[in-house]
From TrEMBL:
InterPro entries: GH (IPR017853). The keyword Signal applies. It comes from the Bacteria. Residues 1-26 form the signal peptide. This is Uncharacterized protein. The lineage of its organism: Bacteria, Pseudomonadati, Bacteroidota, Cytophagia, Cytophagales. Gene3D superfamilies: Glycosidases. Keywords: Signal. It comes from Ohtaekwangia koreensis.
């Protein structure tokens, strides 16, 4: 009897040891893994071949997903008629495709909304963001012409790039912020495009991105965050992911500390799989003209590093598909090439994980730390 009792105790002890070891291994695996892809856009730091080569080289090394981001107009007339797109467009597409690493996931983002998020996207022809030709400058979002052209455009760009993720409308909720009178006609287009694309590409995640700052109380002056959340809920009915665009330093907090619960509060607004469609944090102090004067935003690379670490850590707690830090390297040279304006073009100048001299910042090391972890699919 005594021997049986000792044997039973020994078996229980061994079982408890095995369970403890298994739990410890699982925790270790979690600490040494990540559940999301990490990447950038190929936005160059200046207009040169060297800058493009540098950017794609860093993407090859420091990312496992690339975001081809098209917020520069839509070839409306050609998309509607079925004519070939311009040499400028196809040259851009072919170069991007040739430089994309075969093993990388592809996240493709386009939009029918203009850059100021007030109306229909501008025309893309031989140049970006050209004036809408007549009669396209009179069409509503829900016109048959816009519906037909935009669906054709989405299908053509999907078929060309064969993406793993497709964002059909960049920061779509900002139209509700800036021009609510056009919201209902946009929502008709939104529902139409999503439904048609899902019918053609049922296994492709199709979604829109939303600007997260407007969903949080106190982040934007004179903003009804509850009303904004209701608008986003309308969008998410026709979106496979809860995809966020977020730049905390471009809010009322500027370069000051954001609330400790910021990411939890933002991420918990939807139970759909999460994606960080675009983000970044300025690592230097700069001033920006907001129309009523200059605002100074004070920052440094320590603040940037904290933001990147906070973000990636928060994403580990959720079913997250990917995180895109929009800029690889500061684009001071490009900013100088366009005349060094203090307008919106300066807003993301210093958000690179690599500075304007090509030197890695502290946040780059943090990024590499997470990137080095083994990717484990959700």
């Amino acid at each position: 009897m005594r021997k049986k009792r000792k044997s039973l105790i020994r078996h229980i002890a061994l079982l408890l040891f095995a369970i403890a070891t298994l739990v410890a291994c699982e925790k270790d695996d979690q600490q040494q893994s990540r559940n999301f892809h990490m990447g950038f856009t190929p936005f160059p730091y200046e207009s040169s071949v060297d800058a493009a080569n540098f950017t794609y080289a860093r993407l090859s090394e420091d990312a496992d997903i690339i975001n081809h981001h098209f917020d520069n107009g839509v070839p409306w007339t050609e998309a509607f008629s079925g004519d070939d797109f311009t040499e400028s467009i196809m040259g851009d597409w072919n170069f991007r495709k040739s430089q994309t690493k075969a093993s990388h996931k592809i996240y493709l983002s386009v939009t029918p909304i203009n850059f100021t998020r007030t109306g229909l996207a501008s025309y893309r022809g031989e140049q970006d963001n050209m004036t809408l030709p007549s009669p396209w400058d009179t069409y509503s979002f829900n016109s048959i012409e816009v519906k037909t052209a935009y669906l054709n455009y989405c299908k053509r760009i999907i078929d060309f790039f064969n993406p793993d993720y497709f964002n059909m409308a960049i920061e779509a909720n900002l139209l509700y912020v800036n021009n609510p009178a056009r919201w209902s006609e946009y929502m008709e287009l939104h529902q139409y495009i999503y439904s048609a694309l899902k019918a053609s590409y049922p296994s492709l995640p199709i979604f829109c991105s939303v600007s997260g700052a407007y969903l949080l109380e106190g982040f934007i002056n004179n903003n009804d965050h509850v009303q904004q959340r209701l608008a986003v809920l309308q969008l998410l009915e026709y979106s496979d992911l809860y995809s966020l665009s977020f730049y905390s330093y471009l809010t009322t907090y500027l370069g000051n500390p954001y609330p400790a619960n910021t990411f939890d509060a933002l991420f918990n607004l939807s139970d759909k799989p999460l994606a960080i469609a675009e983000t970044g944090y300025a690592a230097q102090t700069f001033s920006i003209d907001i129309g009523s004067g200059l605002i100074k935003i004070e920052s440094d690379q320590d603040k940037q590093e904290k933001y990147i670490r906070d973000l990636l850590t928060a994403c580990m707690k959720r079913e997250t598909k990917f995180v895109i830090n929009f800029v690889v390297r500061d684009y001071d040279q490009l900013w100088a090439q366009i005349g060094s304006p203090n307008d919106i073009s300066i807003a993301w100048r210093d958000t690179g994980l690599i500075d304007e001299n090509g030197e890695p910042r502290k946040a780059y090391s943090t990024w590499k730390e997470f990137k080095s972890r083994k990717f484990i699919l959700n």
